[in-house]
Amino acid sequence: MAKMVNLKIDGKDVQVAEGVNLIDAAETAGIHIPNLCYMKGMKGIGACRLCLVEAEAARPYYRL
Predict the structure, then answer these.
(1) What is the torsional sign of CA 15, 17, 18, 21?
(2) Which residues sit opposite 4 in a β-bridge?
(3) Most buried residue, 1, 18, 22, 60, by most Cβ within 10 Å?
(4) What mean pLDDT comes out for the span 9-37?
(5) Could you write out the DSSP letters of every residue in 4-57?
(6) Average pLDDT of 37-48?
């Protein structure tokens, strides 16, 4: 049995298996994250840069 992790997405508590893609995790809670290049079962490359989420209490990301 896979280890489960707990997430809070848009105020909704979500429990998914460890390692699940964030887009798939959001879909289990009925939350759609707009995307162009994500295809279920394929390794993500992030080439389109459209998927955008905000993470509270996360380390800041600095683009150089």
Answers:
(1) negative
(2) 17
(3) 22
(4) 88
(5) EEEEEETTEEEEEETT--HHHHHHHTT-----SS--TTSPP---S-------TT
(6) 69
Specify the residue for token string 């390794």.
Answer: 43
How many whole angstroms separate alpha carbon 10 and alpha carbon 38?
A: 21
- The rounded distance, in Å, linking the Cα atoms of 33 and 27 is 8
Highest mean pLDDT among 3-7, 32-36, 37-41, 55-59: 3-7
Contacts of 14 (CB under 8 A, 6+ apart): 6, 7, 8, 25, 26, 28, 29
| Pairwise CA distance, residues 40 & 50, whole Å | 16
Q: Which residues of 18-47 are buried (b: 16+ CB within 10 A; e: fewer)?
A: eebebbebbbebeeebeeeebeeeeeeeee
